[in-house]
């Protein structure tokens, strides 16, 4: 039985005597013949143990997907989507503001490409949460954990693994691609918690722009290798008669489905093609940007178009500057140099993704969310750099920065059938606090779940102690962001 249930239904019983962990162990034993292929991502395809049921929401869930573009460290809202040109120099950055395609909506000059497609996106300027540190802030935004203390591991599963888990309980997977893929995903400060690693992403790492980039363990093209896998599958099938004498829970049926999907992932040309950016013409690749971020977002579009339902990608690494993230304290970066350093790649990749989603008819099914865990302090601080590098002066150089600011920040939404070309909420004259339509981390999560067809108010998952735990404790879908 599933550990997922709804408040409106009778709570389901716990796992059978065989146990969920036992089922996974059994599946691992059954797939021992594949072990030397080094397929950790495939072995995390949790739908091998799914118990399909007849929930009416299955059809809508199968049609929807989310791409989350994560900006680790937190982006300055004043220097991007919520400029305050009239405030004093101790708050105001050096960037001018520009008009967008939407009358009355202004961005800073760092975002000209997004300004030109502003009719295809909505900016939420009144986001806030309560945790000042990166770990706790990320956990609030990704899992709804209200704790403001930084912890080494999440207490609650993030929305990505929850979605993976919930959908795996509802439906058998026929698409050979995993439900949940991370392309250089945010793996710090979030994860499956008590759901277990079986619901973690199939992770693609590296620079997709590199000529040497490849995704291992998918789309085998060597016919001899495919034949060898087929012989192993046949060998296991020949043992089924003996195994089924002990199969009182129907576990081998799940194993059959898992093996079929694993084989499809390994041998399907369509699967290999979904990850293959060379299938895109040069013009499209150029449009996204010939850098890691641009090609990550292009891969994200290709994968959701091919049937991936949850896609996360992190805008981090060398393109960010010296410390590889958006954590623009003065000790890390000259914040304004850092924003200039990364702005072109960021602006180009995000605008290309959003525009492509609409041009390819994915704008109803696919929701795009661009966010980080918090904003940056409206008041500029000055401190000595701790090291020289991109967007940072030599050690000891006094330079400007902004610190952590969870009290107010902006994120961007597009697709998902939502009404676009608008601003939701507002902050005060310095950008310190929301003064209109304040939205919490719980609201953020509930909105994503709503698009995915998951009723966050009435969906609970049992934790390790068997207690039913809400997937969103506090929060409701933001009305302006639901279709």
Count of separate structural domains: 2
CATH class of the largest domain: Alpha Beta
The average pLDDT is 85
Helix coverage percent: 25-40%
Unreliable stretches: 8-62, 235-239, 241-255
Structure characterization notes:
- This protein is α/β, with parallel strands linked by helices and 483 residues long.
- The chain folds into 2 domains: 78 residues, no CATH class; 363 residues, Alkaline Phosphatase, subunit A.
- Helix content is 30%, strand content 15%.
- The chain contains 13 helices and 19 strands.
- The protein has an 8-stranded mixed sheet, with helices on both faces.
- A hairpin with a 6-residue loop joins β3 and β4.
Task: Quickly describe the structure.
This protein is of the alpha/beta class and 483 residues long. It contains 13 helices and 19 strands. It has helices at residues 20-30, 58-62, 112-116, 134-143, 159-170, 223-238, 240-244, 251-267, 269-275, 282-288, 292-306, 335-359, 441-451; strands at residues 4-6, 65-70, 97-99, 106-108, 122-127, 180-183, 202-204, 310-314, 366-371, 375-376, 381-384, 398-401, 404-405, 409-415, 422-424, 426-427, 434-436, 459-462, 468-470.
